[in-house]
Amino acid sequence: MGQEQKPGRRLVLGAAVLGAAGAAAVGTGGSALADDRSGQRGKDRPGKLPVPAVVAHRGASGYRPEHTFGSYQLALDMGADVIEQDLVPTKDGHLVCRHENDITATTDVADHPEFADRKTTKTVDGTPLTGWFTEDFTLAELNTLRAKERIPQTRPHNTLYDGRWQVPAFEDVLKWADEQGRKRGRPVWLHIETKHPTYFRKLGLELEPRLAKLLRKYGRHRSHSPNFVQSFEPSSIQRLKKLVDCPGVCLLDAPDSQPWDFVEAGDPRTVADLVKPEGLKWMARFADGIGPVVDLVIPKNPDGSLGEPTTLVRDAHAENLVLHPYTMRNENTFLPLDFRKGTDPNAYGDAFGAFKAYFSTGIDGIFTDNPDTGKLAAADFRKG
Fold first, then answer.
1. Which of 3, 63, 116, 346 is most buried, most CB within 10 Å of its CB?
2. What is the rounded CA–CA span in Å between residue 53 and residue 82?
3. What is the mean pLDDT of residues 193-214?
């Protein structure tokens, strides 16, 4: 026999980190996960992630205001395999969990007269925004605010919990994850995103070293630590790769969009270029996976129904890249046309059918606002 080849990163992530549960059911491009030498095929092993994995998007945000401990805890209790955090900084350099630095829609800041003069207009990644921004508040000031539902018109039931929780500091999330991991006897997996890193770097609030320092403090900086780091800016993943060893994921938006760091650097490439084989090969030099919007995996037809899958799963797997697309939600308004039920846009449609369609492409996991639905759909898929 010739010299033994080293396994590719996707095989390492698949067999050693992601686990091989459900690998036999994975379709296109799934061969790298199919060889489970442990004899545990189809079983969720402690410390491993099943395939396909269910990533709780901002927690269980279909049921609780996003990025709150209520949302994170419910996601964990529902059995989510991984829980996502989006990170933005405060004025005094702390990392907090918000999808955006504009906190107008996700907190009660507008009800605080003492902060009325903080309302301002800023341009974030080329988009003008008027509101209140985390970088204008200290952590102590943010702690006086309460979180609320971001899309109350779509999820009025979530407004029941408005004001119940604060904006969580990321370090408190790490403490919570450690505590819950000890209680449950298995690690709590996290998917951690740097938001607008170029924008914050220009403000002197660089995200990557702050994130790396916390990951190291809590022992989550190693290659097999139970977390991913992710960003829509590839240069942020490149920077993190120099600071920590945990897997990095490049997030990808619409085909005609550009990562903002590309815009700033004058790089003409778009996401359409990055999902080509040469783009995937480039990302594989410093990233371990990609997080494409689901339309890059299965585009929609002009009428909004699902079309035919692209070759993205096959091509990414050829570069040993793990795929965690985003985002599945239960409501009709977010589902492809052929999986909607009735005329109420806020009513639930055939989410299970949509999950099955995406899982059938061979993806390694998916982000969802409804982790309980995702877990049931993933279990169904593994049964075949």
1. 63
2. 8
3. 98
- DSSP, collapsed to helix, strand or coil, labels residue 204 as coil
Give CA–CA dist 383/132, Å, rounded: 48
Taken as a whole, the chain contains a residue count of 384
pLDDT for 15 beyond 70: no
Taking all residues of the chain, what is their mean pLDDT, rounded to a whole number? 90
d(CA 108, CA 255): 35
Cα separation of 196 and 99, whole Å? 10
Task: Give how far the C-alpha of residue 319 lies from the chain's centroid of Cα atoms, to the nearest Å.
Answer: 21
Task: Yes or no: say if 188 and 76 are a contact pair by the CB < 8 Å rule.
Answer: yes
Q: Could you list the beta-strand ranges (E) of the chain.
A: 53-56, 82-89, 95-97, 120-124, 127-131, 189-194, 227-231, 248-252, 289-292, 322-323, 365-368
For 349, list phi and psi in degrees, rounded to 5: -105, -155
Question: 156-168, pLDDT tens digit by residue?
Answer: 999 999 999 999 9
Model pLDDT for residues 55-108, shown as the tens digit of each residue: 999 999 999 999 999 999 999 999 999 999 999 999 999 999 999 999 999 999
State which amino acid sits at residue 279: G
Q: What is the DSSP letter of 129?
A: E
* Buried b / exposed e along 26-55 (16+ C-beta atoms within 10 A): beebbebbeebeeeebeebeeebbbbbbbb
270, 257 in Cβ contact below 8 A? yes
Residue 20 has pLDDT above 50, yes or no: no
